[in-house]
Design goal:
Layout (H helix, E strand, L loop, with lengths): L2 H23 L1 E6 L4 H6 L2 E3 L1 H10 L4 E5 L2 H10 L4 E3 L15 H10 L4 E5 L4 H5 L3 E3 L4 H6 L5 E5 L2 H8 L5 E4 L5 H4 L3 H10 L4 E4 L5 H4 L4 E2 L2 H10 L4 E5 L4 H8 L4 E4 L14 H10 L8 H16 L1
Parallel strand pairs: 1-2, 1-3, 3-4, 5-6, 5-7, 7-8, 9-10, 9-11, 11-12
């Protein structure tokens, strides 16, 4: 037996153990589209932030295993306070979420008391608790348009905030945060990819810079990208987001050819979760994620308002 065959056999046995533990714990596994292929393959549900927030709110399982980053598991814990929420890779944080604090947001609210506060779901529970409503990349414009206020404080992603500002008469005041994966994609990356794949359609995430968005055929969240690729009559696509999504696209639309806009578009934090960590998490019911009730109650309001929109 070769080393590769031994590795495959080991992975399959680990998957079987995870499946058994999941049944024993009455657990459900949620995985973001950016997770490594092996983790996506064992998940009960795979999706973007909005899809997974909805799934977390609807689960009847006793245990939610969240394969993503910290703010996602926090959101699940806020929406399901009676459940055990696990984050297999406890060190999987979101750098963008750490670019705005609740204290900084309170200062902004004092400076602009008439403004509504929209926080991207990529924020801490404390920031959500200080916000009027949450949003995701797929519903940000709809959320902003649902508000009565003419001024909107938008935290923390400047690129998503600027993108939303293109389509509304409301005054958007974005915080200077960003996703390092999307923000470092440059126009020269687009030109290089288009030279390699001249017939391909270009899809980019709204967390990208304005000059990259201007070059795109479509701007969409990860799940919107998957839906577009599967429905489109076109055959080839350049995908401008984290490369983990390509595995999901290959599974859902195997007849399509999808190329990464940048091979460097990798979120190391999203890749921290692996099968062994999922197994250990289910076995030990750790690391657990919880949010203090005073913060969770206020944060839940902003998340629920988003889900209602």
């Amino acid at each position: 037996m070769t080393c590769n065959e031994k590795t495959i056999l080991g992975i399959e046995k680990l998957k079987e153990r995870i499946a058994q533990l999941k049944k024993e714990r009455n657990a459900v596994i949620l995985a973001h589209n950016y997770q490594i292929p092996e983790v996506q393959d064992i998940a009960d549900f795979t999706g973007d932030s909005l899809e997974l927030a909805r799934k977390a709110a609807d689960q009847e399982a006793d245990v939610i295993v969240f394969c993503g980053v910290d703010f996602m598991a926090e959101t699940a814990a806020i929406l399901s306070p009676d459940k055990t929420v696990l984050l297999p890779a406890k060190e999987a944080n979101c750098p963008m979420a750490e670019m705005i604090t609740a204290g900084e947001l309170r200062v902004l609210k004092e400076r602009f008391p008439e403004a509504a506060v929209v926080c991207y779901v990529n924020t801490t529970a404390e920031v959500k608790a200080e916000s009027d409503i949450c949003c995701t990349s797929s519903n940000a414009l709809k959320v902003v348009q649902s508000l009565d206020a003419d001024q909107v404080i938008f935290v923390p992603d400047r690129n998503l905030g600027s993108y939303v500002a293109r389509f509304t008469e409301k005054k958007i005041m974005p915080w200077e945060g960003f996703c390092f994966v999307h923000d470092r994609i440059k126009p020269e990356d687009v030109k290089k990819a288009q030279n390699l794949h001249p017939e391909a359609e270009l899809l980019v995430h709204p967390e990208c810079r304005a000059e990259v968005i201007d070059m795109a055929d479509h701007v969409a969240s990860t799940s919107q990208m998957i839906e577009h690729v599967c429905r489109s009559r076109k055959k080839e696509f350049i995908i401008g987001t984290e490369t983990g999504i390509l595995h999901r696209m290959k599974k859902d639309c195997p007849e399509k050819l999808c190329y990464p806009l940048s091979s460097q578009a990798i979120c190391s934090n999203m890749k921290r979760t692996d099968l062994m960590k999922v197994y250990s998490s289910l076995q030990d019911l750790n690391p657990r994620v919880s949010v203090p009730s005073d913060i969770a109650d206020r944060a839940c309001l902003s998340i629920r308002r988003m889900l209602e929109v």
